[in-house]
Amino acid sequence: MLRPSLECPCDGSFLSPDFTYEEAPLGETKFDLAGQGYQRSYERCSLCLHWFGRHNLDLTGLYAGDYASATYGDRMGTVFDRIVGLPPENSDNAGRRNRLVEFARHWLGTSPEITLLDVGSGLGVFPYAMRLAGWSCTALDPDPLACEHIAAKAGVASIAADFLEVDPLALGSFDVVTLNKVIEHVEEPCEMLRKASFVTSSRGFVYVEVPDGDMAAVEGPDREEFFIEHHHVFSVASLGLALERSGLRPISIERLREPSGKYTLVSFAASHPLSSQAGNK
Ligand SMILES: [Zn+2]
Q1: Which CATH superfamily is domain 68-280 in?
Q2: DSSP label at 89?
């Protein structure tokens, strides 16, 4: 049984079974379950409204470091081109780029060159867009093939590593650290957020996107927000709690319906007391 580190204030006293699955929902990535039967569920906290994924399936192959290349295979370049070529109004990534550019203008002011660490870059379409926006970008992903693809195709420096394992002092510090649809995939999201805070410069901020469980649940348990890869599905409240517990100060949490149809929560958070930021202005 998973022991996620996102403990809620009720210490598990208010968890109750919510969704149960006897077979994979339509569209879920097929993982080799090595003969294990498909059985999983989410428990939900009735105070912070967070969903905790529960199953005994061995998914160790899932994040052995080849998620992007296992998902896309030799189509990484083709899929990259397709996403980059989407018209802005149809592109989740274009919306993300615009949010970051606008917020950074407000938060960082006129900065000569904004440094970005993107954690869990996948195909690299996001750091590619930020490079074109003039930012100095570094992509980090556990998948070495994805990193090769990012360096060659997106022209972005890439580090093949597990963010939770990498030495933060070796990484250095960045004005902006982004975690786009990443922390719901790990068992210990707060550890990942704490590390993101650590590698964010004192004037900088962290940007987090997670699936919006509140909105997705209205349409039912088979939506992609509740696919097996998601150990955690966040509510507005539980995302705020996770950020606070990780030493980050939420500046905003917003609900989005993205052009792809995904329900998403997006948050900007400071890595230092908000009062000192106000004092810097
Ligand atoms: Zn709770």
Answers
A1: Vaccinia Virus protein VP39 (3.40.50.150)
A2: G
